[in-house]
Design brief:
The protein has two domains: 4-195, P-loop containing nucleotide triphosphate hydrolases (Rossmann fold, 3-Layer(aba) Sandwich); 216-298, CobW-like, C-terminal domain (Hypothetical Protein Yjia, Chain: A,domain 2). It is 28% helix and 28% strand. The chain has ten helices and twelve strands. It has helices at 17-30, 48-51, 73-85, 107-110, 133-137, 141-149, 163-176, 192-195, 229-238, 290-298, and strands spanning 4-11, 35-41, 58-63, 92-96, 119-129, 152-156, 182-184, 216-223, 243-252, 255-262, 265-270, 279-286. The protein has a seven-stranded parallel sheet with strand order 3-2-4-1-5-6-7, sandwiched between helices. The longest helix is centred in the first third of the chain and has 14 residues, at 17-30.
């Protein structure tokens, strides 16, 4: 039986994985390749699914943990089993992992039923946030693991750093993964006809992790009320020292917005979809107090 080729996209929170993914899906669509997509989110709800603007044959979700952690193994195997056995007969499957994934040995999953002889990971693209890599590399082991395991490194957001810094970053990445090619991108734009290679298998080196990263938690905030955007900004700023990432769709006093926190910066833009019925916001950070954050989020509702 011919194995279904799988492409893995890793990279830390906010590096631009979903933007890169959309560019990749656009390439596959232009080639009339039938694509299955598996999105992995650390939070209870999946915001990234709403950000996928390309048409794919099927989208699957694995939430509330990393696909490289045994805590979501059953979900992950079930999703891949369904993709491999789908009558649509996909040409390729793409997996976008959560940003805090410590890339484990997927071979352990793929070498046992029901996946053995049915799928094979061909490439592992690790997306690097040029502007924020140095802030998380020293404190989060998952970042180092993602770089070391990659079959190709993509330095994204290159327009936000100087040429000197970019050169230093390339040198550091080359030390971590000497044999790995490095590409530089802005907004995930690259020549995917030269980037995609489904001829050789990828094999992980590290061991499978047993649990999510220590001290990192996620909180999901939901509201069906109109939110005060100025209060939301203050709310996020007050927790900036604990936050690694925040993103979601919000119904605010100036309209529907997509808001995200990356590194130490906040970004907002109008949203056409994603918050028709209620606001949904996911926070990822250190030792987050679930009830405190939910109370403060409610205080952002218009009275």
């Amino acid at each position: 039986m011919k194995k279904l080729p799988v492409i893995l996209i890793t990279g830390f929170l906010g590096a631009g994985k979903t933007t890169f993914l959309n560019e990749m899906l656009s390439h596959f669509n232009s080639q009339d390749q039938r694509t299955a997509l598996l999105i992995n989110e650390f939070g209870r709800i999946n915001i990234d699914k709403e950000l996928i603007d390309q048409k794919t044959q099927a989208i699957y979700e694995v939430n509330q943990g990393s696909i490289f952690c045994v805590c979501t193994r059953d979900q992950f195997i079930s999703a891949l089993d369904h993709i491999a056995g789908n009558e649509a007969d996909f040409d390729v499957a793409v997996i976008e992992s959560t940003g805090i994934a410590n890339t484990g040995d997927l071979g352990k999953y793929l070498s046992t039923p029901p996946l053995v002889d049915r799928i094979e990971v061909k490439q592992n693209f690790c997306i690097i946030d040029a502007a924020n890599f140095h802030k998380v590399f020293q404190t989060l082991p998952a970042v180092k693991s993602q770089v070391e395991e990659a079959s190709m490194l993509i330095i994204n957001k290159s327009d936000l750093v100087t040429e000197e810094y970019l050169s230093e970053l390339k040198e550091k990445l080359s030390v971590l993964n000497p044999s790995c090619p490095i590409k530089v991108a802005t907004y995930g734009k690259l020549d995917f006809s030269q980037l995609i290679d489904l001829t050789k298998p990828w094999a992980a080196k590290s061991k499978l992790t047993e649990a999510p990263p220590q001290d990192i938690a996620t909180v999901t905030l939901v509201s069906d009320q109109i939110l005060d955007l100025s209060k939301l900004r203050l709310f996020l700023a007050s927790h900036s020292h604990d936050l690694l990432r925040a993103k979601g769709f919000l119904k605010t006093d100036i309209g529907s917005m997509f808001m995200e926190w990356v590194g130490d910066k906040m970004y907002t833009k109008p949203a056409d979809t994603g918050c028709e019925e209620s606001s949904r916001f996911v926070l990822i950070g250190y030792k987050l107090d679930d009830q405190l954050l939910k109370n403060e989020f409610r205080n952002c509702e218009q009275k």
